Amino acid sequence: MIQHAHRRIDDIEALRAFAVLFTIIEHVRYVLSWGNHYVYTFDLFFSATTGVDLFLCISGFVIARSLLRTLDTAPDSETFWRRVFAFWVRRVFRIWPTSIFWVTAIVACGVIFRHAGYFGHFRENLADFAAVVTQTANFHMVGCLPLSECGNAGPWWSLSLEEQFYILLPFAAFFFRRKIAYFMVFVVLAQVFLHRPSWTYPWVFRTDALAMGVLLAIFANGKLQEVVNPKFLANRLYAIPMVAVLLLLMASMPDAARKISSVSFSTGMVAIVAAVLVFIASFDGDYIARGRMPKTVLLWIGSRSYSIYLIHWFSIQATKTIWWYVEPAGTVFDGRYTLRYLLVWIALTVILSELNYRLLETPLRRKGADIAKRIANGESGDRPAPPTSMSEHSTDEASAASA
């Protein structure tokens, strides 16, 4: 049976790890910009862009799992909106500090290291910065890509989509109340069979994955949850092949430049596969995170997946810039630098992500949770507030990653 909403689900954390690893694999091509045989071969069969779809489904599940239950117990409209505002405050403290810090770092490095040029130009980066701060980066990317006017904040588009979801979900809960599940089914059916070419509006507004996550959260509170528990996955002989096949499907189904597309509505199919993985993870039965060492690694990556998702992109440009300054002028960077580039990139990503998690993300997340707790209780000042149903759920919401 699904655990209480305030407890972390290890299998969900493991899925976050897989989601960000997919993203990193997809972006290896930008590290090795001179071309690589293995990347080219991978592109013939797979696309790892679908890590974003998994992130979105996870986010829909984690947020709805605690938020909808909290809002459903609000005795009146005033309490309802006070809890909504507290939720938004937690989201701001959770998402904005890391997001704004690293997009600012990109803009600053673009100016400081302009002679190398890898961080992009100030004009384009400033437009990216404005889109990130206003949570409209997905709109921005659709407009700037055809004109080659995008800066270096590409990964922030999915973060804007999640922020838009955080804003709109409470309104959906208010207007639809206990019928919100029907609305989410409509959202899924309206998109799942659409053909969505990359970097079009339907592609950057793939809310079907988010809606599927919400539906899974609603289902998790129902009476059928225990009945459909896939307990056979407690046996690793079944669990490992099933999870591996589902991850393989996620990588092999999407449209991509060099690979053969499975179906025209592959984006919707990927969302369904992601939902199956989240469904399996929702039981917290160690069906995905298993084995002491693999589980430890996956949980570490999963807990820092938000930092890794944003910082790995910064680290790509930093790696290229470092080698540009280290090597003599006129050096041709080619396959001889593959291992050196990859090692520096991975090291920068791991170190900076850990520092960000400890020094920026975690302290401000806790500060936001404390402020939200007081708001939810209708209190003010610095006096600590007693726990409420909302504050009890804040741990799980605070760990929701944004791709």
Automatic annotation (TrEMBL):
It comes from the Bacteria. Residues 375-403 are annotated as: Disordered. The keyword Protease does not apply. Keywords: Acyltransferase, Hydrolase, Membrane, Transferase, Transmembrane, Transmembrane helix. GO terms for cellular component: membrane. One of its GO terms (biological process) is lipopolysaccharide biosynthetic process. This is Peptidoglycan/LPS O-acetylase OafA/YrhL, contains acyltransferase and SGNH-hydrolase domains. The lineage of its organism: Bacteria, Pseudomonadati, Pseudomonadota, Betaproteobacteria, Burkholderiales.
